[in-house]
Design a protein that fits this description.
single chain, about 110 residues, mainly beta, 6-stranded mixed sheet, 4-stranded antiparallel sheet, about 0% helix, globular
Length: about 110
């Protein structure tokens, strides 16, 4: 199982980023996927998840600002992040139930 996230960067509050996660080595189209994040000095926390058929769930703090999506034909998971806030600063990871991939840093600062 391999999960490689990309698309992070440094932005100002209010701006947007789109994260991607390329998956391989397992049946992505049948797998429940999630985005999690680890803010500096804090524990890892749930951000969003999506079932294999497209049902999405979000942490309250990102509801309405973030959108999770997936392309099962390309084995890619996405996270569109709009109206970013400083508290969104974290390393973001995509994950299955048992595997977390390499993360991508998101920094929101003025």
């Amino acid at each position: 199982v391999q999960l490689q996230a990309s698309g992070g960067g440094s932005v100002q509050p209010g701006q947007s980023l789109r994260l991607s996660c390329v998956a391989s080595g397992f049946a992505f189209n049948r797998t429940y996927m999630r985005w999690v994040r680890q803010p500096p000095g804090q524990e890892t926390e749930f951000v969003a998840s999506m079932s294999s058929v497209g049902n999405a769930y979000y942490q309250d703090a990102v509801e309405g600002r973030f959108t999770i999506s997936r392309d099962n034909a390309k084995n890619v998971l996405y996270l569109q992040m709009n109206s970013l806030k400083s508290e969104d600063t974290a390393v973001y990871y995509c994950a299955t139930d048992s595997v977390r991939g390499r993360g991508t840093q998101v920094t929101v600062s003025s």
